[in-house]
Amino acid sequence: MSTDTISYKEIIWNGIWKNNAGIVTLLGLCPLLAVSATVVNGISLGLATALVMACSNGAVSVVRSWVPNEIRIPVFILIIAVLVTIIQLVMNAYMQPLYLVLGIFVPLIVVNCNVLGRAEAFASKNPVMPSMVDGFMVGFGLTLTLGALGAMREIFGKGTLFSGIDLALGESAKGLVITVFPDYQGFLLAILPPGAFLGLGLLIAGKNWIDQRASKKVLPQKAAELQPSAATA
Known about the structure:
Layout: H1 8-18, H2 29-35, H3 39-63, H4 72-94, H5 96-102, H6 113-121, H7 128-158, E1 160-161, H8 166-169, E2 178-179, H9 188-191, H10 193-232
Antiparallel strand pairs: 1-2
Helix pairs in contact: 1-7, 3-4, 3-6, 3-7, 4-5, 4-6, 6-7, 7-10
């Protein structure tokens, strides 16, 4: 898809809503379902993925003219692996408690279908800036899904919001934790894997419902626009 046929507005809209990686294309579900037990975990992994996608798309766009078609996938994976390693080292140095909680899912960004998919489908065919915007917005759309799913699971599972934020921002951030339901005993299903599937299903259903409502509003408008031209004919 070239920049002649797509605008930055379309890139942003596709990444956040129309082709959201978490609730439309349904790629990379393993980390989405495993890490989204809290808002902090979900958003942290989502932002790390978005940063990797933006940088990898930019790098792929730069080298796309010099990489032979036969070896493009190994080269793309090598670029992604280098960037993920940098993210790992930075998180381990400055956010070690959070890095330990996210565990294996940080290095698994290397094999996330969204990262390689956007490098192959978009960055390998477009200039640097649109490619970086596309990568970041797809990652940001995934981050929003992870955050929403984490919020649902955390509220129903623990009765709180932003628990564990001190893992990312330090001890001083403990005061940012919101207690939604005081003296809440918790709902175990919400923080277990089945709760993740149920929550994701609700998010998908909610998006489909919003899209259907929007399409029903658009159809009468289009019909009204066509009536005058039909009468003139």
